[in-house]
Amino acid sequence: GALFLKEKITPLEKIGAGLALAGSLFEVIRPLLNNGGQGLNLKGNLLVLASVVVGAVYSLLARKYQSTGKKYNPMLVTGIGFMVGFITIAPFFAAEKWFLNAGEHSAGLALSSWWLVDYRGWIGIVFMALLGSCIAYFTYNLALSLIEASEAGVFTYLQTVFAVPLAVIWLKEP
Q1: pLDDT tens digits along 114-151
Q2: SS3 171
Q3: How big is the CA angle at 118 (ends 113 and 123), to the nearest 5 degrees?
Q4: Contact criterion met (CB below 8 Å) for 30 and 45
Q5: Comparing C-alpha atoms, which of 21, 16, 55, 60 is closest to residue 154?
Q6: What is the DSSP letter of 27?
Q7: Which of 7, 106, 149, 157 has the fewest beta carbons closer than 10 A?
Q8: What distance in Å separates the CA atoms of residue 78 and residue 81, rounded to the nearest whole number?
Q9: What is the pTM of this model?
Q10: Do residues 144 and 152 lie in contact, with contact meaning Cβ atoms separated by under 8 Å?
Q11: Angle 45-23-154 (CA atoms, 0-180°, nearest 5)?
């Protein structure tokens, strides 16, 4: 926000961002320190890091289009984001299904029916689509229209505060 949108960052926000950056970088390289980079941890950490960078770019673009002279509605920004996401991911989804079905067919297996999902799967899909996507991104874009991107970024630190206990409770993670 400060570099691209000329937002003001307080000294306390700078300290918080520095600590978060140091902790995140440590977490990314931790697999190298523990086991020489063996296994999937390093790849997974790098993918999460890439996701965070893309999320930061999204936040800056969303803030830019909601705070300039032509202030766009947060619902419009959210809708455009979902349309771009769908157009981007649909070819990869189709290619994956085509390769998966081709592999199953050549192995003599019955073709997978990806649309045959039981009710629990559909409940999860609807929950993720409505709460985890539509409502979450709309409220985030609404917040970006009201506060600076750097301020909104501070709230992302709370994801860990909520995710760790929920992972222990729901996913039985150690």
Answers
A1: 667 788 888 888 888 888 888 988 988 888 888 877 77
A2: coil
A3: 120
A4: yes
A5: 16
A6: H
A7: 106
A8: 5
A9: 0.64
A10: yes
A11: 100
Tokens 């039981």 belong to residue: 118
Specify the amino acid at residue 64.
K
> What does the block give as tokens for 58?
């999204």
Cα dihedral sign for 52, 20, 173, 162? negative
Predicted confidence pLDDT, tens digits, the chain (174 residues): 555 656 677 788 778 778 877 887 777 777 677 765 555 577 777 888 888 888 888 888 888 878 766 688 888 888 888 899 899 998 988 887 777 666 665 655 555 566 677 888 888 888 888 888 889 889 888 888 888 777 777 787 778 788 888 889 988 887
Rounded to whole angstroms, the Cα distance separating 112 from 15 reads 51
CA separation for the pair 96, 89 (Å, rounded): 11
Residue with tokens 């409505």: 130
Enter the tokens of residue 28: 């990314």
Structure tokens at 96: 């994956």
In this prediction, residue 56 carries a pLDDT of 83
CB atoms within 10 A of CB 76: 12
End-to-end CA distance of the chain: 36
